[in-house]
Amino acid sequence: MAGWLLENFYKMNISNISQIDDKIRGICKGGVALQEPLKHHTTIGIGGAVSYFLSPGDMAQLSEAVKFLSSNRVPLFVIGRGSNLLITDAELPFAVIKLKEACFKNMYRSDNKIFAGSGVGLGEFVNFAASEDLANSEFLTGIPGTIGGALIMNAGVRDVMDDGGKKDISISGLVEKIQVMDKTGKMRWLSRQEISFGYRSSSLKEYILLGAWFVLCPERKKNISERMRRFLAKKSGSQELVLPSAGCIFKNPKNCEMSAGELIERCKLKGYSIGDAQVSGAHANFIINKGDASYQEVKALMNIMREMVLDKFGVELEPEVEIWENKKDDSDG
Ligand SMILES: Cc1cc2nc3c(=O)[nH]c(=O)nc-3n(C[C@H](O)[C@H](O)[C@H](O)COP(=O)(O)OP(=O)(O)OC[C@H]3O[C@@H](n4cnc5c(N)ncnc54)[C@H](O)[C@@H]3O)c2cc1C
How many domains does the chain have? Predict the structure, then answer.
């Protein structure tokens, strides 16, 4: 499992658990749910109950909660829309923070720049930019994440240029600076130069992201809207946007002419299912949850996809979706 404070995952001091319950309730007031099922917070609709699900009401509550959890060695993860997560069905003995209150969803303009809080949805961000006649974020249309999740993942698309060539564009190309909180609860700004971004990856994992300034470009609304329509049409025509999924399951492999989706499709896996987990008929790199798919069913399907692509093409697929599992899953699996 990837994430912050992972090294302490099995070190949580559970003897003082009821004190932790009381204290965390005191810090986050109404924004605490105990044993909250994460399947309600992921787009694929899978995920077990987490010990503490926190929605701090403001920055001070967030900072105090982070400080307290860190000092008590309670592992802490942040969730956006859960649109890139595959989470075990088992119980998760840690805390998850969701920045969904108003103070984490601010958006405002200064010159050709927009500040957006981490909890802002990508659709809201693109619409706001368009309403301000500011272009270049249109490629984010139809990606169902938040600003925070998109920065961590360096979300983006492969666009087709006028000459027919393909180009990867991602949110990192818009970033001026990012406001973060570290595990001691302190806030700071990271300039673009202090951050490295890769294909669906970033160096931001150790932080809680609070918001960012993005540099955009003035343009007529009509042109911006036209591009938003084009990006959405492309997505609707090629991706599974209706049934629950976690987006692309595997990254496109490096040094390979075919995308992960093409490789899986050529293995004739479209429509193949295990239980309620199915390889999408619309896009072979999507796994959909037809109703009550389990974590283990999705993992088993991923293994088959990976093994068949390796057998047929000698290409090793790497998950794009972030997997939260625990030791029990390892021993089961
Ligand atoms: C139908 C569908 C289509 C998709 N299409 C695309 C696409 O075209 N391109 C693309 O790149 N992706 C795509 N995705 C994947 C996904 O939407 C993106 O990766 C998105 O950026 C994830 O954002 P999120 O808010 O849902 O993050 P989550 O899935 O909730 O989290 C992703 C990671 O970010 C971390 N995180 C989230 N918020 C914060 C924060 N505030 N501070 C610190 N860490 C944080 C989480 O801990 C986790 O590590 C698609 C997904 C679906 C379901």
Answer: 3
